[in-house]
Write a structure and sequence with these properties.
2 copies of one chain form a homodimer.
Chain A lengths: L5 E4 L4 H13 L4 E7 L2 H16 L4 E14 L5 E13 L5
Parallel strand pairs in A: 1-2
Antiparallel strand pairs in A: 2-4, 3-4
């Protein structure tokens, strides 16, 4: 699982990330991991749902969802806990 | 699975929902489903992570995470798609 198959969702419009994922799949990726932290988690779920129901309908499905807590260093010092999500989207077509 | 074991996460402070879940578990619930839609999805993940790592550490674990798209009626008419999440937290202790 190469790192190039990971799409990090941040604060840009949701369609930017949808397009990034569609591009990966069209280049032959069989699996994409959509990752986000904090408030961007909702947007990552939107990305996965839009792909599954619209742009990659029938081509991919959600194979795994993980949530976790990550520690980030604050600019003003100290450590903050932030929730994170990883949604794995896998191609339905088998490559034999 | 009775409906009383479902905690709907909205726009209140995260600790309100954490407390609601802890109360359910202390009343004997063996499973809780944390649900949220739209922007509250991030908060639902926070609730699950805080329960798992702090208040119910070793007592519960995440047994399932589902995401979906729901249709809601807009106040001004028409239908909008909104992402939703369901996080199932299950007790680690077996009841025999």
């Amino acid at each position: 699982m190469a790192d190039e198959n990971v799409v990090y969702v941040g604060n840009k419009p949701v369609m930017n990330y949808v397009l990034a994922c569609v591009t990966q799949i069209n280049r032959g990726a069989n699996e994409i991991i959509v990752k986000a932290r904090g408030r961007a988690i909702s947007r990552a779920v939107d990305v996965a749902e839009i792909l599954r129901n619209r742009f990659l309908l029938g081509k991919i499905d959600i194979s795994d969802i993980k949530i976790a807590t990550e520690q980030i260093n604050r600019a003003e010092g100290g450590v903050a806990n932030v929730s994170a999500i990883e949604i794995t989207l896998s191609g339905g077509e088998e490559t034999e």
